[in-house]
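Pilot study result, target chain (125 residues):
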Amino acid sequence: QVQLVVSGGGLVQAGGSLRLSCAASGRAFVGTAMGWFRQAPGKEREFVAAINWSGGVTYYADSVKDRFTISRDNAKNMVYLQMNSLKPEDTAVYFCALNRRAPFGLRIGENYDYWGQGTQVTVSS
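Predicted structure:
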């Protein structure tokens, strides 16, 4: 079994930065792809970013491209989401997710096997 613990959310002014962290437990972390998703009130969950096992391939939603950076430290079972130039529309609950099935389709939430509890990110104007 895998447990994902997410931290780093909070309140930040527009234009500011936050770094979200996702700590994974268990050996099932090995060989996985990881993703970040978010859900704003009254809206559907949406893809934010994903990274393959080696870290050499990343994907980003158009809305966060060039502002957010996903990275991972496999020695520590950690995945990060560095969020810069935050906008009020980035306000949402952010989720970390783990994919053990395939290194493709990483923009689709249904392709992930485990999910973290989520952390609130609020960007004020």
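One observation from the pilot: The radius of gyration is 13 Å. A full batch analysis is planned for the follow-on phase.
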